[in-house]
Write a structure and sequence with these properties.
Layout lengths: L5 H6 L1 H4 L5 H9 L2 E5 L5 H11 L3 E5 L24 H12 L4 E5 L5 H9 L3 E4 L4 H14 L3 E7 L2 E7 L9 H4 L10 H4 L3 H20 L7 E6 L4 E6 L13
Parallel strand pairs: 1-2, 1-4, 2-3, 4-5
Antiparallel strand pairs: 5-6, 6-7, 7-8
């Protein structure tokens, strides 16, 4: 495991001084690899905070380009990057934020083999996508590879967050929560989204990813629901489905 340099120690000192974190967990973070699927409203704050916090290796996965309508909430991008690939735009921002974080990019929709390879090389995966087909595929790939998955979604004023930690055979998965894609709802383009709501959820994804990487308690087997209009939060138990086609019998 690569140790922190004195300069890195100084940079991350405000985290290192936390009693629950310390130098050991900061060093774990520095030697960790997170894969982020989606560089939109959720992936933007998640990628910024993981980079700032000192994750040593990030892989960014997105097939899309920056549109002017994205700039209201996708804070990793800039006005002068409209039309640029989102992964390239995000990499520019993140490399300027922390020179010690290695940034890799994947700029197309991965096929099944490519998805498996991306997940197998990760210590944690963040699902910041906006459609059920992608979420189901990422969930299944993480289940096969036994890699923890931090999943969030947001629409209008509301959001949800959970951690599916496939290192634990008793942990529920995304498909325990949603059985099939027929439950898919409206998109942000159709229903709207309040900018700070995805900021909140994406930041919490980064926090849960950091905890998953360093052995701290996460939202495993729980689902957090956030209402940005009232600032009410509820956390529900999320039991494993014994008949789940993805994780049953794992």
């Amino acid at each position: 495991m690569e140790s922190l340099t004195p300069e890195q120690f100084k940079r991350y000192s405000r985290q290192i001084m936390l009693m629950e974190f310390g130098l050991e967990k900061q060093t774990q973070l520095h030697n960790s690899h997170a894969v982020i699927f989606g560089l939109g409203g959720l992936g933007s704050p998640a990628s910024v905070y993981l980079t700032a916090a000192g994750v040593g290796h990030l892989t960014l996965v997105d097939f899309d380009t920056v549109d002017e309508s994205n700039l209201q909430r996708q804070i990793v991008h800039r006005e002068d990057r409209v039309g640029e690939k989102k992964v390239d735009s995000a990499r520019r921002t993140l490399e300027a934020l922390n020179r010690w974080t290695q940034i890799d990019t994947f700029d197309r929709v991965p096929d099944e083999t490519e998805l498996a390879a991306l997940v197998e090389n990760a210590d944690v995966v963040l699902d910041c996508t906006d459609n059920f087909d992608a979420r189901f595929a990422i969930n299944a790939a993480c289940a096969r590879a036994k890699v923890p998955l931090v999943s969030a979604a947001a629409i209008r004023w509301e959001g949800q967050l959970s951690v599916f930690d496939f290192r634990d055979p008793d942990c529920a998965c995304y498909q325990c929560l949603y059985k099939d894609a027929s439950m898919e709802g409206m998109t942000c383009a159709e229903s709207g989204i309040m900018s700070p709501v995805v900021g909140m959820l994406g930041s919490m994804q980064a926090l849960e990813a950091i905890k998953a990487l360093t052995g701290l308690p996460t939202l495993k087997n729980r689902l957090m629901l956030v209402d940005g209009l009232t600032l009410a939060c509820r956390t529900l138990n999320l039991p494993k489905d014994p008949a789940c086609p993805v994780c049953a019998g794992r």
